[in-house]
Amino acid sequence: MVLGLWARLLALAYNVQKVDCDTYRAAQIYGRHVRVLLEHLGIRTFVNLRGPNPKARWYRNAREACEALDVRFVDVMLSSRRLPERGTLLDLLAAIDAAQPKALLACSGGADRTSLAAGLCLLHRTGDVAAARRQMRFFPYLHRPKPHQRWIRVLDRKSTRLNSSHGYISY
Prior knowledge:
Elements lengths: L1 H12 L3 E4 L2 E5 L5 H9 L3 E4 L8 H13 L2 E4 L10 H13 L4 E5 L4 H15 L2 H6 L27 E2 L4 E2 L2
Parallel strand pairs: 2-5, 3-4, 3-5
Antiparallel strand pairs: 1-2, 6-7
Helix pairs in contact: 1-2, 2-3
């Protein structure tokens, strides 16, 4: 009971949100909190959207927790400052396709890159453009791009060519 309450409080602190029945999104989880949340949510695949960073403590903690729990750890480098290249988006979609349910998409704040990744995940899996766009909302995700991050509005009605009948993005 106490662990469940602690895990729920951690989920609030780390902006953990459900994307769909198989996927969650979150901010970067630190220290021993990684293991608590991975166990509580039943995560089997952890997708790190910040890319490899083996010198950083947060990165080592996440990898070690995943190894201890036999959770697959995947690095996909999404920049917080520029539009991802085609290869990066394909890497992200490949990670989503290969993810064992339940998966966790995580970046620094759980808002900008994670909003993009969660939206693309939904679009790729379901073709539901409206659901994908909802991942870009300020509330509850706290997504508010800074001026140098305006590219992240890729799911804006005017700027994206989407084929919702097939669930893929024209790139």
